[in-house]
Structure formats: C-alpha cells, structure tokens
C-alpha cells in the first residue's frame, strides 16, 4: 500500500510539464495537510521534476535523463544568475542548447541565434524581438527591463525573457560554471546506475523459515538475501554464516543480522566501494528516502563499475584528475623494484603564501601510493589512515619527487611510507594504512 507522500509524488509527476504547483493546491486536491504537501513538493524538487524559482513559484519541469545532464533548463539559469523572469514563464521548463552573446550587429547576431538558444544581450529591444521570433529565449544583462511588446511576445512564444543585474561577461562565466559542474556530476557513477532492481532481487520475509533460504540458495547460488516486510521496508539480511547450526524450521527473524548497513541510490559507487571494504561485506541493500528496498549491489557490480569509470574519457576535470594528470615516472625508478614519480606544482595548487596547499599535497601522496600499488597488481586502494609530516615549504612551480615504499602488505591490508623530495632534500613524508580491494 502506497503512503500519502508517495501518492502526492505520483500526482505531481502526472502533471503536465510547465504547470505551476502550490502547497495550497496540492493540499486541497490530495486532501492532506499543507505540511505534508510542502514536504512532498520539496522531495519532488530533490528528485528533479519540480523547480522553485524566486518571484515565479514552483513549476513542473521535465526530469532530465543522465545523458543530457550537461544541459540546463531556463529555470536553472534563472537560479544560477539570480535572475528575474519578465515574461514567458510557461517556457521555463525548456532546455537550452547553447547561449549566444549579443555583442554584434543584429544581422550577424541572428546568424548564430536559433531555436533552443539563449541570447545574452543588454537593453536592445530590437535584438530581443528578433531572438524570440527565431525561437530563442533572452537574457537581459545590466539590470535592465524590456518593453511590454517583448513581454507579450515572450508569453505568446512560451520563451522566457530574464533580467539580471550582472554584466554579460559575468553571466556567461556563471552559466559556463553551472554547465561544467553538471559535466562533473555526469561522470560520477551512482549506486542507482548499477544496482540490481527490486524486480530482480531475491528477498525473504521475517516470518519465513530458514528452509526458504536453502530454496533460494539452490535457485540462485547466492548466499545473502535481504529480509523485508510487506511494505518493502528492510529488517535485516540473512547470510550463510547466520544460519549455521540452526534448524531449517527456525524463523528468519530469529537469526538474521538486524539493522544491516544500507546505501541510498544517490550514493557514489566509490563511496559504496569504500564502505564494502571497511565493513568487509559482499552485498549492500539499496533503499530510497522512505527506507524501502529498491535493489541490491554486489562487490562484483562495484568493481566492474570502477573499472568502467577508469576507461571512460574524462569530460570535466576535478582537482584529483588535474593532480593525477601531472605525474611522471622517473627513469631511475624503471630500473629498480621501487617507484619514483616527478610532479611540478602548478600555481593554482598553492595557498595564499604561494606554497603547496595541504589538500593538494595529500592528494599527491595518495595518488602516488595508488599508482605504486596498482603497478604491483594489488588492485583498488582505500586509504584507511594517513599521517602527514610537512618538513619544508614547497613553492609554486617546484618540481618534486615522490617515492612510495611498501613496509608491509597482505591480501587485504598494507602499510606504506611515502617520502617527498625537492632538489635532493626531503620536504615531506607520510605514513599510510590502506585496505586493498582485489580485482575480480
């Protein structure tokens, strides 16, 4: 049986794209309190099919597919630039393909402006008119308004005309930054992208007998099953270790592991991998915001996803990507059993004093340890503990050498000593405890 909250979400999802939503309307139509309606609308906003815009209200938008996440809706642009919608509010849910800066004559400008575009321009009414006629939305910079005729055209074509107090250069930079952030999000694989969905998940009930475990084990060859009630809420997990020594007629709830570790769909695969290594578990139940089971992920799922991520072309570079791209293996290390890497400290990696920042230094040390252990075919590495010593400051554009050494290594754990040199002098070092995730 679905809850009122879920019923409201289903109702909101059924509304046409572009429709305005209010707490009062939802409360009245669904016969719930305004507090319940408000929480459901906020949840819908988090799920990406509702957007709230200052001075406009809350509207139903089209939920973007993951492959189109790098595109922004006009509603998102309004929020990014702290804009005000002058007209064409019914088109805020639409997605823009590109933006055009209107710093040229009308004829030249219109050669680059077409349907699905956003023209960024000052208080040039003629440019506003031509852009709307071509199917493009308009962003008016400098805090200017536009004429009533333009607002009527915007409403007629369902294309937003937005005003912002920022100048053209700042606005373009802000939109670029938003698109760039979306690209980075696109690269991060979430648990929801790789999970085995509920309809293909084998589970048990708390009132089942252990005999049911043996049946499911024989059918699937799996040894771990989530235990859920009729409302799909998870109560525990039952493994081969749990049932050892018990009669087959004992109830599942008597021997299951209660309060199992779970993750939500929006957890990154990398975080799930760390959790599985630290806790020494093979499978993780995946739940939604209402604590209901939506699927399962296994250690093999996570490893395959991590290997796939490494093969993907990187689109938006994060700090870790920039640091990793600067590593060079020295010629000396190729002739020895150890490893020695070179790295040049870029200006953007320094603090206000012009010396290497703590965060970058930590990333360089962990990346060196990762590279070294991967080269020794030790699999994926999860840093469990790290102690860093700064011995001397490292200036920008300095070329440093990083030398990791294995102190102790087993099948699941390792200890490393990493030393950093500049011009032959030691400038820093770290002691690391790591857990190893073997490749399957």
Automatic annotation (TrEMBL):
<dbReference type="Pfam" id="PF00571">
    <property type="entry name" value="CBS"/>
</dbReference>
<dbReference type="InterPro" id="IPR029069">
    <property type="entry name" value="HotDog_dom_sf"/>
</dbReference>
<keyword id="KW-0129">CBS domain</keyword>
<feature type="domain" description="CBS">
    <location>
        <begin position="195"/>
        <end position="253"/>
    </location>
</feature>
<dbReference type="InterPro" id="IPR000644">
    <property type="entry name" value="CBS_dom"/>
</dbReference>
<dbReference type="InterPro" id="IPR046342">
    <property type="entry name" value="CBS_dom_sf"/>
</dbReference>
<dbReference type="InterPro" id="IPR036388">
    <property type="entry name" value="WH-like_DNA-bd_sf"/>
</dbReference>
<dbReference type="InterPro" id="IPR051257">
    <property type="entry name" value="Diverse_CBS-Domain"/>
</dbReference>
<dbReference type="InterPro" id="IPR036390">
    <property type="entry name" value="WH_DNA-bd_sf"/>
</dbReference>
<dbReference type="InterPro" id="IPR006683">
    <property type="entry name" value="Thioestr_dom"/>
</dbReference>
<dbReference type="InterPro" id="IPR028979">
    <property type="entry name" value="Ser_kin/Pase_Hpr-like_N_sf"/>
</dbReference>
<feature type="domain" description="CBS">
    <location>
        <begin position="256"/>
        <end position="314"/>
    </location>
</feature>
<dbReference type="Pfam" id="PF03061">
    <property type="entry name" value="4HBT"/>
</dbReference>
<protein>
    <recommendedName>
        <fullName>CBS domain-containing protein</fullName>
    </recommendedName>
</protein>
<dbReference type="InterPro" id="IPR010766">
    <property type="entry name" value="DRTGG"/>
</dbReference>
<dbReference type="Pfam" id="PF07085">
    <property type="entry name" value="DRTGG"/>
</dbReference>
């Amino acid at each position: 049986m679905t809850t009122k909250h879920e019923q409201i979400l289903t109702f909101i999802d059924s509304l046409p794209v572009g429709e305005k939503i209010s707490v009062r309307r939802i409360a009245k139509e669904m016969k719930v309190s305004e507090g319940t309606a408000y929480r459901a609308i906020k949840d819908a906003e988090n799920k990406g099919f509702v957007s709230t815009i200052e001075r406009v209200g809350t509207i139903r938008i089209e939920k973007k597919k993951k492959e189109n996440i790098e595109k922004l809706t006009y509603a998102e642009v309004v929020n990014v630039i702290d804009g005000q919608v002058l007209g064409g509010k019914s088109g805020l849910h639409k997605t823009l393909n590109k933006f055009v800066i209107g710093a040229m004559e009308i004829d030249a400008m219109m050669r680059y402006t077409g349907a699905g575009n956003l023209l960024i321009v000052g208080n040039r009414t003629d440019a506003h008119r031509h852009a709307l006629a071509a199917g493009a939305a308009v962003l008016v910079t400098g805090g200017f308004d536009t004429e009533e005729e333009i607002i009527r055209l915007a409403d007629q074509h369902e294309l937003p005309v937005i005003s912002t107090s920022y100048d053209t250069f700042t606005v373009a930079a802000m939109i670029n930054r938003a698109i760039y952030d979306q690209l980075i999000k696109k690269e991060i694989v979430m648990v929801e992208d790789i999970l085995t969905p509920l309809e293909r998940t084998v589970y048990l009930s708390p009132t089942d007998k252990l005999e049911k475990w043996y049946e499911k084990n024989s059918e699937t060859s799996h040894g771990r099953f989530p235990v859920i009630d009729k409302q799909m809420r998870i109560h525990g997990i039952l493994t081969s270790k749990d049932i050892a020594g018990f009669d087959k007629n004992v109830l599942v709830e008597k021997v299951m592991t209660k309060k199992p570790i779970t993750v939500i769909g929006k957890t990154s695969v990398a975080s799930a991998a760390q959790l599985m290594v630290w806790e020494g578990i093979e499978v993780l139940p995946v739940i939604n915001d209402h604590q209901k089971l939506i699927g399962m992920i296994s250690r093999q799922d996570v490893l395959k996803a991590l290997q796939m991520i490494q093969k993907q072309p990187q689109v938006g570079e994060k700090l870790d990507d920039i640091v990793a791209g600067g590593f060079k293996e020295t010629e000396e290390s190729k002739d020895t059993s150890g490893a020695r890497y070179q790295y040049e400290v870029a200006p953007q990696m320094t603090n206000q004093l012009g010396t290497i920042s703590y965060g970058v230094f930590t990333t360089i040390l962990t990346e060196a340890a990762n590279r070294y252990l991967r080269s020794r075919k030790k699999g994926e590495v999860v840093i469990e503990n790290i102690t860093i010593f700064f011995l001397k400051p490292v200036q920008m554009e300095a070329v440093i050498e990083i030398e990791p050494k294995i102190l102790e290594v087993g099948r699941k754990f390792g200890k490393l000593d990493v030393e950093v040199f500049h011009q032959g002098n030691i400038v820093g070092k770290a002691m690391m405890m790591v857990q190893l995730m073997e490749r399957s």
